[in-house]
Amino acid sequence: MNERLADSHRIFDRVSQEYDTARPHYPEALYLALETLTGIRLAGATVIDVGAGTGISTRGLLDRGARVVAVDRGERMLARLRARTDCPALLADGNDLPLRAGAADLVTYAQSWHWLDSALSVAEAVRVVGGRGAVAGWWNTVDPGKADWLAANQVRLAESCPGYIGPVLPGWSMPPMAAAMSDAGLSVAETWVDWTRSVPLEDFLTDLRSHSYIASMEDGVASELLARERAELGRVFPDGRLTVPMRVYLAVGRQGRRGAM
């Protein structure tokens, strides 16, 4: 595993408060699509939420009746998750899950699989769900094609942040989880869910600070960048509330089934 992947939990531990405060939730339609593509009803299902972070997806799954075990490598991230929920939370590596074979109905990665080894992580997930379960990963992303102000914001970030990864980069695409699941012998289904986020400007900026390409910057450089964005976005949204077009990508892998939405 390269150094960037190996150190990712340290990067996010640095901004665990910002992550917990301002990262977006996932819309109801995402969980409905998850049930449709996996064929698994979340109510009563045993779910291993890998890379759970501060528990955004964990809480979403719990709210829909799942029995969840959260897994993350970040101590500070998990501390915030534990403060909000009493579900089991393991400080562990998603490439080497401390769980028996067939222990779960579903293994999920919400905004996290790209920080793991692509082959090892999927192999571990397949082992943990056995022959009856499913593996799923999803990612929230902004949709700059639907708003000029958002496209301009993303271009500025791409120009200012050497580590920027996002939808205005040429050739950008979602992490190749579907390909990794297919390589592991799973039948794959994919879909996109569109939604809209209404958020205060300061929360939008705090969310930006929690992304790896800003979290890895020196504090002074990051603060200057966010101050410039505050000024730019404040001119577009003088009332201080942003309407942000969003999309969620979902990829699901199952043994012996095929499909797509």
Q: Globular, elongated, flat, extended or rod-shaped: what is the shape?
A: globular
Order of SSEs: HHHHEHEHEEHEHHEHHHE
Question: What is the annotated CATH architecture of the domain at 3-143 and 174-198 and 245-254?
Answer: 3-Layer(aba) Sandwich
Query: Going across the major beta sheet, what is the strand order?
Result: 3-2-1-4-5-7-6
Radius of gyration: 18 Å
CATH topology of the domain at 3-143 and 174-198 and 245-254: Rossmann fold
Q: Got a strand count?
A: 7
Helix content: 40-55%
The CATH class designation of the domain at 3-143 and 174-198 and 245-254 is Alpha Beta
Mean pLDDT: 93
CATH homologous superfamily placement of the domain at 3-143 and 174-198 and 245-254:
Vaccinia Virus protein VP39
Beta-strand level of the residues, as a percent range?
A: 15-25%
Biggest beta-sheet profile:
7 strands, mixed
Count the DSSP helices.
12
Secondary structural class: alpha/beta
Catalogue the unreliable spans: none
**Alpha-carbon distance between the two ends:** 33 Å
